[in-house]
Amino acid sequence: MGRNFIPKSVATAIGHFYVTWFNLYLNYHRVCSYDTEKMDKRGKIRKVYNLHTTPYERLKSLPADKQNLRPGVSFATLDTIAYAMSDNEFALKMQKAKRVLFTSI
Q: What pLDDT is attached to residue 20?
């Protein structure tokens, strides 16, 4: 979506789509791979991607001193957002919203 020219009149609708759907999908529902550094026989550090989880689940798995939440935000509040829909349900609704956005453009 970001590689072509976007008219100024459509920028607000696209920004609304990102805030309402896309950012939530990336943070709470899309699986990412995280690396672990391992040293091989020759002493070279290799990255092995063996942890696959969502960014939100990864944040929750960090030690308490590395969890940088804004003041007033708790995991209970974030859990209601994350677990309101399944990953597939949210993806389908996001795709539907994207189709509506593209037909309006």
A: 94
Residue indicated by tokens 């759907």: 21
Residue type, 46: R
* H or E segment and range at residue 82: helix 75-82
Confidence of residue 67 (pLDDT cuts 50, 70, 90): confident
The answer to whether 31 and 91 have CB atoms below 8 angstroms apart is: no
Taking every pair of Cα atoms in the chain, the longest distance, rounded to a whole number of angstroms, is 57
Quote the CA–CA distance of 24 and 36 in Å, as a whole number. 26
SS3 category, 46:
strand
Residue 57 CA to residue 29 CA, distance in Å, equals 10
